[in-house]
Each structure stands twice: as structure tokens, then as C-alpha cells.
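Field log, afternoon session.

UNIT: design team B
ACTIVITY: writing a sequence onto a fixed backbone
BACKBONE:
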């Protein structure tokens, strides 16, 4: 049964699809999250779908705009499947909350403990994580020669769980994780030590960790339009650091701006946004996307 938002008696499918049910021969995708109005995922996916002559439609399911509680997540998942969606992308704050609602997890998502891509199969709802590959691919392309002896990661939520795996895959020797939720940071570190035998630690003193770090990565929502500010004091940034952010709207977060002004090499979140979308498109369609074309779509949209 379709669920209604608290703002309106209209069923959710009207709000999401504007009275248009998915075409029987088309591919319909949604992005589930909060504050996602500036997302460029619809543009990247739909333009790639058009390049491949697909009837490909990508909808934003913004819990803020629809005035939905987090508790509606199971109903949204069921509604999307009932409507004939091929899958969903999942973003803040649901990348971990979605886990118990799925019937199966791909190995990457199971290892990371977070899902950003859900594929509705014929019989099972499968969770994947394309954030990890997306960040790693961006890092390998943009910061191929930086020091990786010790890295400080801020945040260990859904995005952070994927980024920590990616950093280790990219050769980081020691990873320090700071989170205001100490238990979550400790759990992430323990999982990585258990699964990868990695040198990963939850840290309480972010200033001391920054002094020892070669690189600093923000994996929190701090810096987004609706969460402005810095995830770490600007005074802790030094020109010897390389600094990465997972946020891409705005592309030039305060962290990236402050780091750049101090002479740091920087990695904005745009690359991760592009490459996670590339992998997600492949999962949704079974087709090989044109990654450079999707990146070009992103760059034009950001500049425009």
C-alpha cells in the first residue's frame, strides 16, 4: 500500500514520480536521502542512459522535502520495489540504516558495513557499496604520489566506512579514525583490523593525530550546504598535508578552500561522486558506462 507523507494525503508515488509510473521497458532509479536537492546523480545517470539509448529515469526521494521521518525508510524501500524501480542509490543518513532491510549484501557492502546502491533483483534485494571504489579511483587518479604512511580520517559513518576501506586499498599504512561517536569509530577500526589485519585505530585527540598525519580526509557531512563549517580546526591544517573531502555540493567546501589556501594538495569530492555513479550505473543496467563522458557531464554541471 503506498505511504503518504505527513505534508499531504497524496500517496508517496505521486510526490516521487509526479503521476508517472515507470515505463515497462524503461529503467527507473531513485536516490534516497536528506537534503539532496543539489545532487548531480540524476543528471549523470540520465545523460549516460540517453547515450546508451535507454529510457532511463532518475528521481530524488528527499526525506526533507517529503517531510518524512527516518522510520519511513522500510516503507520507501518497499514502495520503490512495488512501483517497478530497478534500484536505489542511498545517501546520508541512511547508508547503514538500510542494512537490516535488505535480503542480501554483496561482498563489498558486507565488508564495509554500509550500502549506497540497492539493486532490485527478480527474487532478492541486494545491497552494494560503490563509494569505496569511487573514492579509491578518484584518489588513484588525482593523488597518485602522495605520502601514505599515516592518514587521519574524520568520520566513520556510512561514507566513512567506505572511505576507510578505500584508503587501505590505496596503500595507507596506518589509519587513525576520529568521530564524535567514539563507539562507532572504535567499531570501524576493530572491523578493519579483523578483516584486513590493518593498522587502524580510533583516536580521541584529533589535534595530536593531525600533527602526525600525512593526509586528512573528511568523511562527515560537515561542509555541506545544510551543514556548513569545518570538520577540523583550520589551525591544524599544514601545507605538508594532502586533504580530501567526500562532499561535492558545494564542490569547494570550506575544508578544501582553507586547505588550498595553506598550500595543501586537495581532493574535492567530485571524483568520488563521478566514479561511484559509474559503478552504480553498471549495477543498475548491466551495461558498461562511459566513465569519461559521465565525468564530463559532472564538470559541465558544476561549472554551469
Amino acid at each position: 500500500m503506498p505511504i503518504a507523507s505527513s505534508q499531504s494525503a497524496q500517496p508517496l508515488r505521486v510526490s516521487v514520480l509526479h503521476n508517472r509510473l515507470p515505463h515497462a521497458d524503461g529503467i527507473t532509479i531513485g536516490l534516497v536521502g536528506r537534503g539532496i536537492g543539489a545532487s548531480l546523480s540524476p543528471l549523470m545517470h540520465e545523460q549516460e542512459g540517453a547515450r546508451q539509448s535507454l529510457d532511463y529515469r532518475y528521481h530524488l526521494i528527499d526525506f526533507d522535502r517529503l517531510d518524512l521521518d527516518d522510520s519511513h525508510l522500510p516503507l520507501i524501500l518497499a514502495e520503490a520495489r512495488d512501483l517497478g524501480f530497478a534500484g536505489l542509490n542511498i545517501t546520508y543518513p541512511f547508508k547503514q540504516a538500510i542494512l537490516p532491510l535488505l535480503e542480501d549484501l554483496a561482498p563489498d557492502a558486507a565488508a564495509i558495513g554500509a550500502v549506497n546502491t540497492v539493486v532490485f533483483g527478480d527474487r532478492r534485494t541486494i545491497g552494494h557499496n560503490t563509494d569505496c571504489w569511487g573514492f579509491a579511483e578518484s584518489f588513484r587518479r588525482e593523488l597518485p604520489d602522495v605520502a601514505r604512511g599515516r592518514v587521519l580520517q574524520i568520520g566513520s559513518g556510512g561514507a566513512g566506512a567506505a572511505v576507510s576501506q578505500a584508503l587501505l586499498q590505496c596503500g595507507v599504512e596506518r589509519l587513525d579514525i576520529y568521530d564524535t561517536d567514539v563507539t562507532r569509530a572504535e567499531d570501524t577500526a576493530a572491523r578493519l583490523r579483523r578483516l584486513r589485519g590493518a593498522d587502524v585505530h580510533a583516536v580521541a585527540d584529533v589535534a595530536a593525530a593531525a600533527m602526525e598525519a600525512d593526509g586528512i580526509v573528511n568523511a562527515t557531512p560537515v561542509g555541506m550546504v545544510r551543514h556548513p563549517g569545518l570538520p577540523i580546526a583550520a589551525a591544524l591544517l599544514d601545507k605538508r598535508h594532502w586533504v580530501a573531502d567526500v562532499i561535492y555540493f558545494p564542490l569547494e567546501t570550506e575544508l578544501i578552500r582553507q586547505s588550498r589556501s595553506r598550500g595543501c594538495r586537495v581532493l574535492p569530492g567530485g571524483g568520488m561522486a563521478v566514479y561511484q555513479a559509474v559503478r552504480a550505473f553498471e549495477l543498475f543496467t548491466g551495461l558498461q558506462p562511459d566513465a569519461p563522458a559521465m565525468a564530463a557531464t559532472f564538470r559541465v554541471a558544476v561549472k554551469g
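LOG NOTE: The chain has eleven helices and twelve strands.
NEXT ACTIVITY: expression trials, pending approval
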